[in-house]
Amino acid sequence: xxxxxxTTHILDLESGEPARGVLVxxxxxxxxxxxxxxxADGRISEWQGLLVLTTGTYEMRFKxxxxxxxxxxxxxxxxxxxxxxxxxxxxxxxVPLLLSPFGYSTYRGS
Length: 110
What we know:
This protein is mainly beta and 110 residues long. The protein has one domain: Immunoglobulin-like. It is 6% helix and 42% strand. The chain contains 1 helix and 10 strands; from the N terminus they run E-E-E-E-E-E-H-E-E-E-E. It has one helix at residues 64-70, and strands at residues 6-12, 17-18, 23-27, 33-37, 43-44, 56-63, 80-86, 93-94, 97-100, 103-106. The strands form 2 sheets. Strands 1, 2, 5, 8, 9 and 10 form a 6-stranded mixed β-sheet that branches. A hairpin with a 2-residue loop joins strand 9 and strand 10. The protein is elongated.
């Protein structure tokens, strides 16, 4: 199994556990939209569909409202959009999300 050129990892800071079952969509510069759901470790290493990395602006939308609802937890966020720009088609981009019901942080990981 080959890792996709764009990956993510979501950690739920309130529970201290990976955020399992979060639907994430990825919009690519050329208009293609892919999606995947985080695994038991809160990770997405593959997308449904073929992802060919190009330079340009991407957007990941983390559908966290449904995640918190399934846990019976109140949240301020329904979706969290994260836009980022790729400068080379030969790199790997890892975009982690540190999540709580009323705040989040993200960064370019490795």
